[in-house]
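P.,

For your records, the input lines for the assembly:
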Amino acid sequence: MTDDLLSAIDRDSYEPAYAQLVRILTRQIAAGLFRPGDLLPSEAQLCDRYGVSPMTVRRVINILADQGVVIAKQGRGTFVKPLELGTATFDLGTLLQLLKEESNSKVKFLEARITPATKRTAGKLAITSGDRTVFIRRLIYHNEQPVLLHREHVIYDPSRPIIEAEMEVTALRGLFSGGSKSGLKRGELAIDVTVLTAEEAILLQTSVGAPAFRLEHIFCDYDDRPVSWGWFICAGEHLRFTASIGVYE
Amino acid sequence: MTDDLLSAIDRDSYEPAYAQLVRILTRQIAAGLFRPGDLLPSEAQLCDRYGVSPMTVRRVINILADQGVVIAKQGRGTFVKPLELGTATFDLGTLLQLLKEESNSKVKFLEARITPATKRTAGKLAITSGDRTVFIRRLIYHNEQPVLLHREHVIYDPSRPIIEAEMEVTALRGLFSGGSKSGLKRGELAIDVTVLTAEEAILLQTSVGAPAFRLEHIFCDYDDRPVSWGWFICAGEHLRFTASIGVYE
DNA sequence: ATTGACGACTTCCCTATATAATTGTACAAT
DNA sequence: ATTGTACAATTATATAGGGAAGTCGTCAAT
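Structure tokens returned:
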């Protein structure tokens, strides 16, 4: 208790004042000193209490607010937010970490050929059915073990000089680390569940019917035209998305 | 072009200056005026260009930076970030939206009984095997159709007054909207894939072996002790996680 | 009892200014 | 060639304060 009350900004620290105050308030909330629904001290009070300027306190409140820890209501005060499932966010960090370590991972090209677009592919890429696309299949290994199967359709259009660069980017390495000259503007991702087909099971060296993630992606260029559509298949045993909600000290 | 160059802060607008500038810069980036890797105008230049104070520009840069659109490097400048898969974040918004509309969704209690903890449950809840827990099974309907199956183990310990409140919170409604008096501090979530067992398939009125999401959760109280462990099962056909990366105007 | 005006308090937005920290360059000294 | 120094440009942090806008209670007028 007294520890929390005695906590103060250390002016000699390399840690900026605002960061220290974020830490202090977060810890106080985590310790239960302020519970969900409680009113935090007003900004003026925090200024006096910690000897910082209003702008600094505002900055701290803003940070806590878009961390989702508190919510500030004009004219009323700043309140501690309760635990909400909806605030949980999952990312691809775990998936990508596997592949970041170059040494342990490698990519095997299975196939790359030019083929007319099916109706479905044409729909996804906003082209007309029968237009030519480059179809690519890759197998990504981690520790000598196949983990990801990647299928992708890339628009084949010699009139677009972008294409060449796309192929680079789509070379996975670029996709993950983000090549600077990509010419890609945005992408849409979606996660589905599926069960492995016979072909997929063989490639991924596991059993048919096993549950798997399917990560679909579409990338668009600066004219908002789709350039590539594809998806990764990953057996469930190799992947898990995790998230945390609430306050962590 | 000229449109982008002529764009200015409207002082009479209700939209704050910082928000307007975020919008302006975002649109310029989305339009390809600044490409990945490019250097943005310096903060001083932006001040002159748009007639705002340095603090306001700093706020704008900060917002863009933690949106992942740009990255500011001290002493060098602010750069436009390339597209990176790792920045994609998925949330439970779609899942929860289904259940927010009270009218279309209802919860059916299947079971709630006190039972000794198995080894696995004890491990998850950090109690000793054989301790009593409350086991709960629920079925969540949306539009008269079963969508989610929920299983949960809650610690049964009369000496903890929290328990009573937990039961409230765990009453789903509270879980989603976040009861203010929850007494819960934090939670861990994980998404797995699985295939439906016979029992699950019957309850969810779909077929055995169908792929499904499994959303596991553990909630802890203010002493960091686990209070409840459980998971939702959702057939894949009803759920899809989506995310976007890149710049949206 | 209801309404309306006022004031106290709060968060929100913005300006103006100053100082520190980091980086890169140019140039002189070694 | 390498090193060191000085300088300019940049972002990062912080101070001090003012006005706008929202909320809530008080108190007088109706």
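Two observations worth noting. Residues 67 and 87 of chain B are 9 Å apart (CA to CA). Residues 2-82 of chain B form a domain with the Arc Repressor Mutant, subunit A fold (CATH 1.10.10.10).

Regards
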